[in-house]
Amino acid sequence: MSNPRLLAETPAILNELGRVAVALSETARTDDLANFVAVTFDAPLGVAEAKAEVLHLGEHVLPGGAPLPYAPEGSLRYALYRDRAARADNRTLCVRGRVIDSQHYMQLWEQAFRDAVSPEQFASMFGLRVLLTFGARLQGVRGSRSSTPSAPFKSFSRFERAYGDRFSYHTSGDGEEFFELTLDLREPNAAPVLFHTEEFVGHHASAARQYMRARLEALDPRAAPPMFVSRQASFLDGSPP
To answer: Taking a C-beta distance cutoff of 8 angstroms, is the pair 40, 214 a contact?
Structure first.
């Protein structure tokens, strides 16, 4: 590979300063494959700090077609190759201000998956927690039951008894009632609870009426929005500062 060339500073180019794979617990697996949340730290060229964001690129989707914020490594790698690696090839994405091709870009993510961290480790490293929010239409769900032997709740009613005090409810413009639950991935059983709830609710809720979203939130509520200082990037991409 030739020496990387500094890219001309242009707002159209995304500058990735780092990346982290956050591993869900072993009890939240897809076809016996571990699931991950992919986090990137992006900034405009010439800016020393980057905003941390969860990528919603996985091929695993809800029945309505919306991508889940977590997926097995293979699914995420395929999605990353089609999206961000392709952008590296067409030079609308760079790494730490320098040109990189798709092959070397994917090698950075391969390393990130090898070095995957737990939600607790991620919070300790960056002062950020990963929150997952699941929501669905209530109609037809309260009587639903799970067919998965390992599900933490065998019915929606048991799920609601356990977590109902943390539900938020709202009514849509067309008069339909929805529930929503947000859990911190550091909480015991948070990942399997949301994972299996999405699974059994998905068989009963209207396909277009459920969603799963992830976001990052600073542990210190007085802190600025989740930001990543570029001097830490050397740890994340293995390159010298």
So the answer is: no
Domain boundaries, the chain: 14-128+221-237, 129-218
Query: How many residues comprise the chain?
Result: 241
DSSP 13-76: SEEEEEEEEEEPPTTSEETTEEEEEEEEEEEETT-SEEEEEE----S-B-TTSPBPS-EEHHHH
Degrees, nearest 5: CA angle 67-73-79 = 45
Q: How far is CA 70 from CA 9, 33, 55, 81, 194, in A?
A: 32, 12, 9, 16, 11
Question: Does residue 14 contact residue 42 with C-beta atoms inside 8 Å?
Answer: yes
Global pTM? 0.80
Reported confidence tier of residue 201, pLDDT bands at 50, 70, 90: low
Helical ranges in the chain per DSSP H: 73-80, 86-89, 102-114, 119-126, 156-163, 190-202, 233-237
Please enumerate in sequence order all residues whose Cβ is within 8 A of that of 21, keeping only pairs 6 or more positions apart, or say none: 36, 37, 38, 39, 73, 76, 109, 112, 113, 115, 116, 117
**Where is pLDDT greater, at 93 or 206?**
93
27 or 89, higher pLDDT: 89
CATH number given to 129-218: 3.30.70
One-letter amino acid for residue 168 of the chain: S
d(CA 60, CA 30): 10
SS3 214: strand
pLDDT at 20 over 50: yes
